[in-house]
Amino acid sequence: MLTKIKFKFQLFFSYLKKNWFLVSLFIIIAVSAVVFRNQIISFYNLPTWHPKIIGMEGLYTTSNLPEEISNQISPGLIVYNENQKPVISPIVDNLDIQNDNKDYIFNLNNNIYWSNGKKFTAYDINYQISGINITPLSNNQVKISLDTEFAPILSLLSKPLLKKTLVGLGDYKVTKITYQDGYIKTLKLKPKDQNKNSLEYRFFNNEQDVIDAYKIGNVDEIKINSLPQEFNTWNKTKINQTINTTDKYIAIFLNTQKISSKQIRQALAYATPKSKDKNERCIGPISPQSWAYNPTIKEYNFNSTRAKELIGKEEIGKINLSVTDPRLLSTAESIKNSWRDILKADISITIENQIDLNNFDAILTYGAITKDPDQYLFWHSTQTNTNITKLNNSRIDKLLEEGRQTNNQNERKIVYQDFQKYLLEESPAIFISYPTIYTISRSSN
């Protein structure tokens, strides 16, 4: 018995002697597997192995991607905080403003690389902005100069720094782009942080196509403006409702050359139905998140009595309400009925993709919200292509000019709060609401 046991031990140690390397390697692997088991498990369950597929509406190229996407691919020299104040981006170490706010010297961080691995330098900055000069002072320093003082300059420098092939400096790298009819069909993004999901954006021509793509399982998440009731009963579907107060608003833009009476415009504003939800309600063109927002301006809450007082014995006559988006038709019908019943106006509704801005009465559409409170393009009398209401008010013009030439933020705030006050008094537009965004996503529960 002892002889057999001794023989087995000799055989075992003989095997170890001949195969010591393989045995040692096995022991190391086994110990490592135990010690690093959590890391190994997380590696094989990385979210980046299972990309989130997001459906979006719209036709886009590499030069006009939605900010939601482009900001993930690359920041600009400037980014905006929650109060829409401009601050330096992660690629900038500090900013020095000189020469009476005409020279902006950016000192860049030294360890920034493009998503293709090449080092980022000041010589890579190639903003195409009229009226500015870009001069690299070294690899890590660039001077951006203006001929005249222009307060909104920082907002222009928030545009993401991107190369033509969407090589960027951000948290996500573009790994694949496919096209259809000249527009991006799919866009795949891979994160630097392995604990984050890879993302794949798929683009569709209209909202119904986006909804259908979710229904048949082609996408995992969609963002839409109208919620199909059936989604409320779908299993494993999560619905998140938010009000978008930072990108656009819904308003009626009035042609002040045709509806020239301020009292009639104000009467129309009071006779327009509006939400009683203060979060949804829009009262002016500047976001309530902005440091320049004025919450004390006229709200023009629905008031049929006040509307009738303002209209007096005047006759409004015929007004054609043009609608640019079929999803706004129900809102347009509500407005039509209210204007007809309260003001005895003859109202017609037309859906138009292309509106003759020289020959319209009123347009129900979306207005753009800019991060900087500068509103010069939209309301200054000289901006004939973008001031669609044709507003011509010298006091408002002067405030818009001052806002562009005033860099002190406290002084600028006073200027733009006055601007909002006088704009609402003139009523070239009737501000209604902010759009509701429904995020529909699949859940595991």
Summary of the model, kept short:
The chain is 28% helix and 25% strand.
Describe the structure.
It is a single chain. This protein has 445 residues and is an alpha+beta fold. Among the domains are: 75-156, Dipeptide-binding Protein, Domain 1 (Dipeptide-binding Protein, domain 1); 248-436, Dipeptide-binding Protein, Domain 3 (Dipeptide-binding Protein, domain 3, Roll). Helix content is 28%, strand content 25%. It contains twelve helices and 18 strands. It has helices spanning 2-18, 20-35, 37-43, 67-73, 153-156, 207-215, 262-270, 304-311, 329-343, 376-379, 394-405, 409-426; strands at residues 52-57, 78-80, 86-88, 92-98, 103-108, 132-138, 141-146, 172-180, 183-191, 199-204, 221-224, 237-243, 248-254, 318-323, 346-351, 362-368, 429-433, 436-442. A hairpin with a 2-residue loop joins strand 8 and strand 9 (183-191). The radius of gyration is 30 Å and the shape is globular.
